[in-house]
């Protein structure tokens, strides 16, 4: 059995574009419903930082995660939000080990 | 309708105690299955930081989150892991807006 992988992705929008970035990432997230191995792809805003969007990802394995990223960049979703970013996304890589919300 | 709330909790164990902290937090997480309003309580380790544990929480509303925290500190779970912590946990407060994994 391959191990689950996850990450927190921190994206910062150009000033004033936090809501637009969140909307764009919600469209990306809707597309991820069809991605094999996608367990979580939750878009969050934060009360502490108006232009930040955090995405919580969990995948059944590394291969699923990589396949979805390649597909998504090639098709629509993430490409459409890139112009809203003030800089490159930052990642906290995770190894999910259990708890409510994992099937 | 009240808004969902979430957070990422970063906990650092005393040196060498990352695995023990993750095990303790898994016990806390199992207890959260019975907590009203708990949608996610996922315990993660990270390949980048051996003694770190991250918890991904999503609650149906702020009141559920607060009620569970009070109950848990009073009963067993979190109290048992406190001696493993090198310092106070850090929190990134979130407002989940959507995506796969939210019901």
TrEMBL record, chains A, B:
Residue span, ABM domain: 5-94
Pfam families membership: ABM
SUPFAM superfamilies in alphabetical order: Dimeric alpha+beta barrel (SSF54909)
InterPro entries xrefs = ABM_dom, Dimeric_a/b-barrel
Q: EC class of this enzyme? A: oxidoreductase
GO molecular function annotation: monooxygenase activity
Name the UniProt key words of this record, in alphabetical order: Monooxygenase, Oxidoreductase
EC number(s) from the headed UniProt entry: 1.-.-.-
PROSITE patterns in alphabetical order: ABM (PS51725)
Q: Which domain of life is it from?
A: Bacteria
Name the chain's protein: Quinol monooxygenase
Q: Which organism is it from?
A: Pseudonocardia lutea
């Amino acid at each position: 059995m391959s191990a689950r992988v996850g990450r927190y992705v921190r994206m910062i929008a150009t000033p004033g574009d936090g809501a637009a970035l969140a909307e764009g990432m919600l469209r990306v997230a809707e597309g991820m419903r069809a991605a094999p191995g996608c367990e979580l792809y939750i878009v969050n805003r934060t009360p502490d930082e108006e232009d930040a969007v955090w995405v919580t990802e969990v995948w059944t394995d590394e291969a699923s995660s990589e396949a979805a990223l390649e597909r998504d960049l090639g098709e629509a979703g993430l490409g459409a939000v890139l112009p809203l970013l003030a800089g490159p996304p930052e990642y906290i890589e995770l190894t999910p080990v259990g708890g409510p919300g994992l099937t």
